[in-house]
Amino acid sequence: MKKTLFKQFVELTGHPVSSSILKTFTRSSMSKRLLKPFASAYRINEEEAEYPLEHYKSLQDFFTRNLKHGVRPIDQRANVMTSPVDGYLTASGKINEQQSFYIKDHLYSIKQILGDEKSANTYKDGFFYIFYLSPSHYHHFHYPFNGQLVNRYALGTTSFPVNDLGLRLGNQPFATNYRLISEMETSHSKLAIIKVGALNVNSIHLTSTSKNCTKGDDFGYFSFGSTVILFIEHDAHFKSLLSSGTEVKVGQPIGEWKEPQTSQNYEI
Fold it and tell me: pTM score, two decimals?
């Protein structure tokens, strides 16, 4: 019962007025009384949080919490890409020749998501991951690989739910919601990290504007349940390490670049 109420309260509203009321309430001290039932309803591991539950002054304060140092070890192997978030890998796969893919029976175009034909062409025949962050998850996002930031821009205005119901019944939220796009150059492929807002509060917050991207570094957070999409430029040596439906954590390996095998010549 408690979780049902929280789902209606936190996840499902898409109206600008109710979203504004929600935003105001969750940031107020009145919401502090919901901390314990919220943590209990979503089975949040309080031991991972930076501070004890009573330290947080509001539901929003707890929702955007940092974690204790070291609880998310980062796989530092040079050929491995790691998860940028804690969440569910709801979909992944090859981007087809038409630069599109299906999610919940909706056809999504990369051009619609990125808003630009030139950017979309970069990821033709590449690979995509879609991660959904439920209210139970840690809501910061981290760089999945080392590289240099080459582009950052925002698209969209209002935002609607990105949970399962929102994806099935909504008007293609990945292509219409407010979203913040970061493109990186790496030693292997170009990456696009798309942070998709949920609810009309457009709750994406950057905490770093550095152009140096270090794998595992925290560079922002969401205020409400949300989604991160990764596009990876085509590379025949890239291999995904996860199946859709898997729950992942920041720093966990999700893909790798296999070095091409070289033939060896032997003298006789």
Answer: 0.83
SS3 165: helix
264/55 Cα distance (integer angstroms)? 61
pLDDT in tens, 144-199: 999 999 999 988 665 544 444 334 434 444 445 678 899 999 999 999 999 987 66
Strand partners, 232: 127, 191
Round to whole Å and give the CA distance between 80 and 74: 10
Q: What burial class does residue 164 get, using C-beta atoms within 10 Å of its C-beta: 0-12 exposed, 13-18 middle, 19+ buried?
A: middle
Q: CA-CA distance, 39 to 189, in Å (whole number)?
A: 39
Catalytically active residues are 86, 142, 226
SS3 (DSSP) at 138: coil
Residue 262: left (phi > 0), alpha (psi -120 to 50), or beta?
beta
- Report the candidate in 150, 143, 151, 141 with the shortest Cα–Cα distance to residue 214: 143
